[in-house]
Amino acid sequence: MRILSAGAAAMRHSAIAVAEALIVAAIVAALLLALSPVYQPADFLAGTESAQAAKGGNGGGKGNGKISGGGDTLALVMVQDTNGNGSPNHSESVTFDVSSTADKPYVNVRCYQGTAFVYDAWAGFYDGAWFGQTFTLSSSYWAGGAADCTARLVTWSQNGREQTLATMGIRVDA
Predict the structure, then answer these.
(1) Counting CB atoms within 10 angstroms of each CB, which of 62, 100, 131, 165 has the fewest?
(2) Do residues 30 and 81 both lie within one domain?
């Protein structure tokens, strides 16, 4: 009789451990799903993001023009131009002149050196946004050199899906 109850206890313990593992897996999946509109790992990992966007947009020109998308506009503004050439260079600071009908527009800047991902930063361009609106074009992955960047004016729909309102390519010189 004791052998039977010990076996039943082991089975009960195993069933509880499996149930706990399933609960933890469900919590992790829910967190990843909740964060996906912010960080967008799903599109990149699935390969559905266009190769051109993944490499920094059109990259043509210096990117100091004004790009529009359906009434929303995004224009590069130099904050710190250490060499005075009027174009962004590594370690200089930029911001954007943003005009948008979105309640809470954000600007995302992503940079690549060839296929190497070297920079990613976000800033809110609305009243009350945290952390400022200046992008310093350097990172621990970007020690120097030129890079092709893409600036995107972004908002999120009510169901949490990211919507790109305007995009511009920016060439950052060394």
Answers:
(1) 131
(2) no
Task: Indicate the SS3 state at residue 38.
Answer: helix
What's the pTM?
0.63
* Secondary structure (H, E, C), 98-166: EECCCCCCEEEEEEEECCEEEEEEEEECCCCCCCCCCEECCECCECCCCEEEEEEEEEECCCCCEEEEE
Secondary structure element (H or E) that encloses residue 68, with its range: strand 66-69
DSSP run (H or E) holding 77: strand 72-80
- Percent of the chain that is helix, strand, coil (3-state, to 5): 30, 35, 35
Q: Write the pLDDT tens digit of every residue in 62-87.
A: 444 556 567 899 999 999 999 999 99
Q: Which amino acid is at 40?
A: Q
Q: What is the largest CA-CA distance in the chain?
A: 88
In this structure, are 72 and 151 located in the same domain?
yes
Domain span at residue 74 reads: 50-172
Q: Is residue 45 assigned to a domain? A: no
Q: Is there a domain that residue 71 lies in?
A: yes
At residue 54, does pLDDT exceed 50?
Answer: no
Counting the structural domains of the chain, the total is 2
